[in-house]
Amino acid sequence: MAHKSEALGSKRKLANGSKEQSSKKPKFDKKPSRKQESEEDVSDDSEISEFSDQDDGGASLGNAKSQQNDDIPFRAKPSNNEPGKTFEKGQNSRESHIKQKQLALERKNAKPLADELHRTKKLWERLRLKSKVPKDERQKLVEELFSIATGRMKDFVLKHDAVRVVQTAIKYATPERRKMIAKELKGTYPILAESKYAKFLIGKLLVKGDDEIRDMIVPEFYGKVRKLINHPEASWILDDIYRGIATKEQKAILLREWYGPEFHIFRTATDDKTVPTAELSQILEEQPSKRGPIMKYLLDLTNQLVQKKMTGFTMLHDAMYQYYVNVKPGSEESKEYMEMIKEDENGDLLKNMAFTKSGARLVCLLLAHGTAKDRKQILKTYKDTFQLMSTDPNGHLVILAAYDLIDDTVLTSKSIITELLGKGEQDEVSNVVIAANDPNARLTIRYPLEGPSKVLFDAGRADNLKLLEELWEIRKTTSKKDPEVRRKELVAALSPQLLSAIASSPLDLISTSYGAQLVTEALLSCVGDKSEALQAIASTAQGNPNEADAAADESANEAIPREHISKASYGGRMFKTLIAGGHFDKATRRVIPVDPPLHFADILYPFIKDHIMAWATGPSSFVVLNLLEADDFSSKNELKSTLKKNKKVLEKAATEETPEQKAAREANEASAEEQKGDKKKKGKKASAKKEPAVGNMGSKLLLEKLKG
């Protein structure tokens, strides 16, 4: 269907296929010819007298009756109530226009609440000037606005030019007045949702998060979900309420209406006794005989919205997920549903689904149960969308699922990895830096390197890990490739771009904790020549740790101090892990070295050799300790000799309080004083806390190492 503006803007065609006649007037000579003068002399006198008073020099109209139906496809006729646009005798066009404006104003003033509406508009014009109205004046204007609108809110909100007045009243209203407005509008919210302008008023009432107003508005949408979700205006406000405002119970009541009309009709009987559930599996288990009608009703409603291209609703994606998880995998129902989703012409349905929780999970299940052809088509739909998906809390799950489920890793690397990391060197560096520091995008880069580690999937991502484990079970029946082989092939596809980015821009990557973690995992897990990348990372340790580096700020054309990498705790951890050459395995209580070994100790030592004592007595003292413990470190004797010569420096560092410990002690003392005062007030005895250890622990262990 053509867009509304296109339909209005298109040229109208006549029945015979020719275009509508132009409204441009034909040109005429200013002076009539002698032939025209002679013809006018013999024209009917009555006809001349009829038009002479209003003739403005245009062409002669001739016989009006004979031309009534000639060359005029449509003729506007005056209605019964309004006169046509005809001039009265002795009246020109300007006078006629003034009279028409007067008539329009009289009709407007004759409408109900005309005076009140006129005054409120004047108040609104003043109130919307945020910076130019003094606070006292604004308060007076608000009071006057409420004095006019109170008791007449319903009359105002249903007028397109007056609803903004009510919105302004809500904006400056106190919580009590906001509740008063909500109560006054009670019973009209579904009607307001269907209005192009009034629907925003519902959002303004709900945005403050008042539970009483929420519980007043949301129940008015019960029983009207099917009607409103199909409405071009109401559907969006309904979905916004469902997605961001409604409680868990209210969401369940709204979603249940997708299963059939009886879920609203018979809902009120159990309102006060049981909490409703929207889990379709539980409903079908309790009422197995109704499976057919419920599934048909749900399918029809979802298909209806898909066909209308109204596919951006969270409620729709929740309903679709409930349908798919309750059909048997591989059944005709499942295959038909897959086809319905794939047949969406522009792929908007799949793209929208990737950015909601239920939608992303449904796409993951479609990838798991689909054929190789289905997976390829789904990936094709997301072309030019993967970067946006990688930073989304739900969208990045689709990428992780694709890594685990698609056997054709060449297709995966070309479709996903190339888009995530870019093609040019400059794009690779910037994209890797951005991805490394984004809480969601970093998983799409590090997941092939680390797998489902606890570092990536902490307690907050337990649901995501549970979904991936479910996909692994499905993969056993749909995939032919060994999971470890698939992972190694993906690592091989990632390696060239990651190692290149590390080698060309090491300082940008290790400037944050997440970036340093990515560098560590890349250097341990990537395949290929790592020598340039290892050398680049080692070079970031050069310089005196007790002096800040000057980092150029290109935007400001000036140098800003940058803290030495040894001062950052994550920097020390990165160097320690790279020196060890692998990750520590808790089960075997030892480090599992990578193959081939990195030999990072020999690469790092030349860069820190001149300032080794600053490292040994600073926050990253454990890096020096790891150098002594490394089996493949060739300059171990030289390092021991240097440390022994500066034994007194080590002893001083091992016994003196570090700046970090001093700051922590002072904070603890201040906290203890506050607690002591509180306990005295309550009559309780203050408990003594154990004093923390003083001195650099790494320096202490180095001294013990030297004794041995």
UniProtKB/TrEMBL annotation:
<dbReference type="GO" id="GO:0006417">
    <property type="term" value="P:regulation of translation"/>
</dbReference>
<feature type="region of interest" description="Disordered">
    <location>
        <begin position="1"/>
        <end position="99"/>
    </location>
</feature>
<protein>
    <recommendedName>
        <fullName>PUM-HD domain-containing protein</fullName>
    </recommendedName>
</protein>
<keyword id="KW-0677">Repeat</keyword>
<comment type="function">
    <text>RNA-binding nucleolar protein required for pre-rRNA processing. Involved in production of 18S rRNA and assembly of small ribosomal subunit.</text>
</comment>
<feature type="domain" description="PUM-HD">
    <location>
        <begin position="79"/>
        <end position="456"/>
    </location>
</feature>
<dbReference type="InterPro" id="IPR040059">
    <property type="entry name" value="PUM3"/>
</dbReference>
<dbReference type="InterPro" id="IPR033133">
    <property type="entry name" value="PUM-HD"/>
</dbReference>
<feature type="compositionally biased region" description="Acidic residues">
    <location>
        <begin position="38"/>
        <end position="56"/>
    </location>
</feature>
<dbReference type="GO" id="GO:0005730">
    <property type="term" value="C:nucleolus"/>
</dbReference>
<feature type="region of interest" description="Disordered">
    <location>
        <begin position="650"/>
        <end position="708"/>
    </location>
</feature>
<dbReference type="InterPro" id="IPR011989">
    <property type="entry name" value="ARM-like"/>
</dbReference>
<dbReference type="GO" id="GO:0003729">
    <property type="term" value="F:mRNA binding"/>
</dbReference>
<dbReference type="Pfam" id="PF08144">
    <property type="entry name" value="CPL"/>
</dbReference>
<keyword id="KW-0694">RNA-binding</keyword>
<dbReference type="InterPro" id="IPR016024">
    <property type="entry name" value="ARM-type_fold"/>
</dbReference>
<feature type="compositionally biased region" description="Basic and acidic residues">
    <location>
        <begin position="85"/>
        <end position="99"/>
    </location>
</feature>
<dbReference type="InterPro" id="IPR001313">
    <property type="entry name" value="Pumilio_RNA-bd_rpt"/>
</dbReference>
<feature type="compositionally biased region" description="Basic residues">
    <location>
        <begin position="678"/>
        <end position="687"/>
    </location>
</feature>
<dbReference type="InterPro" id="IPR012959">
    <property type="entry name" value="CPL_dom"/>
</dbReference>
<feature type="compositionally biased region" description="Basic and acidic residues">
    <location>
        <begin position="650"/>
        <end position="677"/>
    </location>
</feature>
